[in-house]
């Protein structure tokens, strides 16, 4: 499970006080033997609410007192109740010592993911250990928003959060998920595995179905990529890692950060600094995934943002004059290509199944308004022409394979050479 975490909000706080460095548990191990601590509830917090959507945007500021802080009657840390009280009210916290870690299966900037055994039920689960600093409002805010988003979603193709596990360390909290054996990036990187057209349609149909549920519930994922698409042994694909996700309302757009989505799957408007955007960023990523599965490799593997935009313009064509006038993007003058490029998707992917090209053309439109909707993508001829999407249960059974496994194998091979 790729693990990255997300963005922004609004605060009113009292006068600044000098912050005391929290040195208690910086280097503590995963043994979890120190009592969890948390800051007091924040002063006057403003949230944005509309159509029953709650934003955790830019809103948390903390002042530590240097000693342990209270938990509520259920045992939840007070700071967690303050930012995600509605989401956790039906849960009882579990302790980390009721799980046994078996293996590390993912790693990100703010989190590690472990395969673990629930010592009470005997089930195998995935534990996402979120590292945060009570002095760092950003990391707490992103973790809280991920919980809020996941509690709102309920779909066979979206990962399900099963509870929260509190550690005795002040800087750790675990999110418990159902365990999935594979991720799409890990499977695609195995040389012996070559997906058939029917299998690609099966995976893409599940991805788009999960995205449709997210968008219908006012959620942008903002980090669709192969390592965040988990697959179990029954062939079921689930969208995971909502650390960068955000609530959105197309009727009342709020400014959001453009620093989202892994570079190879990042839409051009984000690279150009857009702060008002919508479902188009997820659709672009889905288009990259579809073309990658058909090509057998990433289609635009840029190393820098400048190189990524160059690859996009060479494949998808330069934006029109109308585009620049319509969107007025912050980085337009910096990245506007000096020479025009002609769109060449059909020529570049001429060996792809013919029914896939109209869908790729739509999803990889430079103008986000021309990418349509997930529902339109699901109704495209790609899914209604033979070979039809196979049933997930008919997919081959593979040995467990995740992107992290591939990276470890590659590192070992380089050391051997």
From TrEMBL:
Residues 14-23 have a biased composition (Basic residues). The keyword Nucleotide-binding applies. Residues 99-383 form the Protein kinase domain. ATP binds at residue 128. This is Serine/threonine-protein kinase. Keywords: ATP-binding, Kinase, Nucleotide-binding, Serine/threonine-protein kinase, Transferase. GO terms for cellular component: cyclin-dependent protein kinase holoenzyme complex; nucleus. GO terms for biological process: positive regulation of transcription elongation by RNA polymerase II. Belongs to the protein kinase superfamily. CMGC Ser/Thr protein kinase family. CDC2/CDKX subfamily. It comes from Capsicum baccatum. One of its GO terms (molecular function) is ATP binding. Signal peptide: none annotated. Residues 1-52 are annotated as: Disordered.
């Amino acid at each position: 499970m790729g693990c990255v975490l997300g963005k922004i909000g609004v605060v009113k706080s009292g006068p600044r006080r000098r912050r005391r460095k929290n040195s208690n548990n910086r280097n503590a191990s995963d043994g979890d033997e120190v009592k969890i601590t948390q800051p007091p509830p924040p002063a006057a917090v403003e949230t944005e609410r509309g159509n029953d959507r709650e934003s955790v945007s830019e809103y948390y500021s903390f002042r530590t007192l240097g000693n342990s802080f209270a938990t509520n009657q259920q045992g939840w840390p007070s700071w967690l109740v303050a930012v995600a009280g509605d989401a956790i009210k039906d849960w009882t916290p579990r302790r980390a010592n009721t799980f046994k870690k078996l293996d590390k299966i993912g790693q990100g900037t703010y989190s590690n993911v472990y395969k673990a055994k629930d010592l009470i039920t005997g089930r195998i689960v995935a534990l996402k250990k979120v590292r945060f600093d009570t002095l760092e409002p950003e990391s707490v805010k992103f973790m809280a928003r991920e919980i809020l988003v996941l509690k709102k979603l309920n779909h066979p193709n979206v990962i399900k959060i099963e509870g929260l596990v509190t550690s005795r360390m002040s800087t750790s909290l675990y999110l418990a998920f159902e365990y999935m054996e594979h991720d799409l990036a890990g499977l695609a990187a195995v040389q012996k595995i070559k997906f058939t057209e029917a299998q690609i349609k099966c995976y893409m149909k599940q991805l788009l179905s999960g995205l449709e549920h997210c968008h219908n519930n006012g959620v942008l994922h903002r980090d669709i990529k192969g390592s965040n698409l988990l697959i179990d042994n029954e062939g079921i694909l689930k969208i995971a890692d909502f650390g960068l996700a955000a609530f959105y309302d197309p009727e009342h757009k709020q400014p959001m950060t453009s620093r989202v989505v892994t570079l190879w799957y990042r839409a051009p408007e984000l690279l150009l600094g857009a702060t008002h955007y919508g479902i188009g960023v997820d659709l672009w990523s889905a288009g990259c995934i579809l073309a990658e599965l058909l090509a057998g490799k990433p289609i635009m593997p840029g190393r820098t943002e400048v190189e990524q935009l160059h690859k996009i313009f060479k494949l998808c064509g330069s934006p029109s004059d109308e585009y620049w006038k319509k969107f007025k993007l912050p980085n337009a003058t910096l990245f506007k290509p000096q020479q025009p490029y002609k769109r060449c998707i059909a020529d570049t992917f001429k060996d792809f199944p013919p029914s896939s090209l109209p869908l790729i053309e739509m999803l990889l439109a430079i103008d986000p308004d021309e990418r349509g909707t997930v529902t339109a993508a699901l109704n495209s001829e790609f899914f209604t022409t033979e070979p039809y999407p196979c049933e997930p249960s008919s997919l081959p059974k593979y040995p467990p394979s995740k992107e992290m496994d591939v990276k470890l194998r590659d590192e070992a091979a380089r050391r051997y050479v």
